Amino acid sequence: MFFDIGPFELVTIVLLGVIVFGPDKLPKLIQDLTGMIRKLREFSDSAKADLRKELGPEFKDFEFEDLNPKTFVRKNLLENDSLGLKELRNSFDLKDELSTVTEAVSESGVTVRTAGDRTANGPVNGSDLLRKRVAADNPLSPGENPPFDADAT
C-alpha cells in the first residue's frame, strides 16, 4: 500500500488507535495529524522556495532530489556521457582480461600453486609456507635467542 504497510498492518494500526484513544477522540486525532503533516509540507515547500531564491538564477534547474547520491550519479555520469564513460565501460571486459592473463601464465610454463594443491608430502599448509619463509629470512641459528633491546620495550 504505502510506506511498505499492507492491508493487515493498516487494520491493526486502526484497531490499536481505536483501543488506545477511543472511538470518540480518534477522528479529532486524525484531523490534527493530517493538519500537522500539511503544515510540515508547507514549511518544506517554503524553505525550498527560499533556498532557490537565495541561490540565484544560475541554479534555476536545481532539483533537491539530485542531492541523493544515486540520482546524482545516474543523472551526471550515466545519462550525460560527456566524459565517454559508456565507451570505456563497454571496452572493459573483465572475463576477457582474466582469460588472457590465464592463457599467458599457462603458456609461460610457470606453475601456479594454491593452498588446495597437494605436494608429495601432503597438502600445502599456509602456516608451513610461512615458517619456511621466516626461517629463510632469519639469520639466527636454531636455539639462539634474538638480541634484547631494553630501550625498545
From TrEMBL:
Record bears the keyword S-adenosyl-L-methionine: no
Does Amino-acid biosynthesis appear among the keywords? no
Instruction: Write out the annotated subcellular location.
Output: Cell membrane; Membrane
Instruction: Tell me the GO BP annotations in alphabetical order.
Output: protein transport by the Tat complex
The record's GO molecular-function terms, alphabetically, read:
protein transmembrane transporter activity
| Membrane topology classification | Single-pass membrane protein
- UniProt GO cellular component terms: TAT protein transport complex
- Keywords associated with the record: Cell membrane, Membrane, Protein transport, Translocation, Transmembrane, Transmembrane helix, Transport
Question: Principal localization?
Answer: membrane
Q: Which domain of life is it from?
A: Bacteria
- A Pfam family of this chain: TatA_B_E
State the InterPro entries in the record: TatA/B/E, TatB
Q: How does it assemble?
A: The Tat system comprises two distinct complexes: a TatABC complex, containing multiple copies of TatA, TatB and TatC subunits, and a separate TatA complex, containing only TatA subunits. Substrates initially bind to the TatABC complex, which probably triggers association of the separate TatA complex to form the active translocon.
Role: Part of the twin-arginine translocation (Tat) system that transports large folded proteins containing a characteristic twin-arginine motif in their signal peptide across membranes. Together with TatC, TatB is part of a receptor directly interacting with Tat signal peptides. TatB may form an oligomeric binding site that transiently accommodates folded Tat precursor proteins before their translocation.
Q: Which family does it belong to?
A: Belongs to the TatB family.
What is this protein identified as? Sec-independent protein translocase protein TatB
- Source species: Streptantibioticus silvisoli
| Gene name of the record | tatB
